């Protein structure tokens, strides 16, 4: 059996809601893939003046993405730096905490509950792209190739950079850890240089967690939000394969129009975008992935 279905699954799971400063809609679609391996979180007003959204794109199985979806919010709320409003440090520590939990006996047992097939060990991982909004400040923490794009003056202001093994900094770390990059893949296998999970790449005791072949440490980008900022578009890599960032924002804006933005209108914008991106067939290889998108509209 190949990686694709004979017909895509176009039905979507869509959620929306709002908080004091945001309205959001999140939508996911399995598409042409045999299984759905994405997960996501959306928590406006998780504490006063803080909202969190995240996209987790699984690979090698769905279990790590589901584990992170279940635990990320709980762990960041416990984090001392989060309580002290040191959000950049809190995000980094919570990404690393996911791997710590995954490595425990209880974590491994829980992964087995989420797995689609029976096997002794999980080789799954997931990307993580998490947006935290505190008052008028946006932080985006990223590990992997899911993305966040801010619509600023109706133009894309990119909030994350993909972590690919060919990137100079990433490649040098991989080689220092005794690995190699071949055809854009770590040791010829994984086409990401940062991810949560993928624990078999993180077991060399000579190296610290941020020195391993694959690392969970995110980059964090911070920006002050103003009246020129309309919404944040988040998505797994499948959302960004066929249209560039400017075209994606234009598509969302065309749905939103000049109307009063509501939860139902954002749901329509998210679902229409996924329909637009889905490939008519699998011949090109693009537009065939699982797709998850979150649109976070910034109230004025």
Automatic annotation (TrEMBL):
Coiled coil: none annotated. Its cofactor is Mg(2+); Mn(2+). It is an enzyme of class 3 (hydrolase). InterPro entries: PP2C, PP2C_BS, PPM-type_phosphatase-like_dom. GO terms for molecular function: metal ion binding; protein serine/threonine phosphatase activity. Its EC number is 3.1.3.16. It is found in: Membrane. It is a peripheral membrane protein. Keywords: Hydrolase, Magnesium, Manganese, Membrane, Metal-binding, Protein phosphatase. Residues 1-20 are annotated as: Disordered. It catalyses: O-phospho-L-threonyl-[protein] + H2O = L-threonyl-[protein] + phosphate; O-phospho-L-seryl-[protein] + H2O = L-seryl-[protein] + phosphate. One of its GO terms (cellular component) is membrane. Pfam families: PP2C. Residues 23-298 form the PPM-type phosphatase domain. Belongs to the PP2C family. This is protein-serine/threonine phosphatase. It comes from Paramecium sonneborni.
């Amino acid at each position: 059996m190949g990686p694709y279905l004979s017909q895509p699954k176009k039905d979507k799971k869509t959620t929306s809601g709002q908080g004091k400063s945001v309205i959001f809609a999140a939508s996911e679609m399995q598409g042409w893939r045999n299984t759905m391996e994405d997960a996501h979180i959306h928590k406006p007003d998780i504490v006063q003046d803080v909202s969190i959204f995240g996209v987790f794109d699984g690979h090698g199985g769905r279990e790590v993405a589901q584990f992170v979806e279940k635990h990320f919010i709980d762990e960041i709320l416990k984090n001392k730096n989060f309580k002290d409003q040191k959000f950049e440090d809190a995000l980094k520590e919570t990404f690393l905490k996911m791997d710590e939990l995954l490595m425990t006996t209880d974590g491994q047992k829980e992964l087995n509950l989420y797995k689609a097939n029976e096997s002794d060990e999980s080789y799954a991982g997931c990307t993580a792209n998490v947006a935290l909004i505190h008052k008028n400040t946006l932080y985006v923490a990223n590990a992997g190739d899911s993305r966040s794009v801010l619509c600023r003056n109706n133009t894309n202001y990119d909030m994350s950079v993909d972590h690919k093994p060919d990137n100079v900094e990433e490649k040098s770390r991989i080689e220092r850890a005794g690995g190699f990059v071949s055809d854009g893949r770590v040791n010829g296998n994984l086409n990401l240089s940062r991810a949560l999970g993928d624990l078999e790449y993180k077991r060399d005791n000579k190296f610290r967690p941020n020195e391993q072949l694959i690392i969970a440490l995110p980059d964090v980008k911070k920006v002050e939000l103003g009246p020129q900022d309309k919404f944040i578009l988040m998505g797994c890599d499948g959302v960004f394969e066929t249209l560039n960032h400017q075209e994606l924002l234009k598509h969302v804006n065309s749905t939103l129009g000049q109307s009063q933005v509501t939860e139902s209108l954002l749901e329509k914008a998210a679902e229409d975008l996924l329909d637009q991106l889905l490939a008519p067939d699998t011949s090109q290889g693009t537009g065939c992935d699982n797709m998850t998108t979150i649109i976070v509209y910034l109230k004025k």
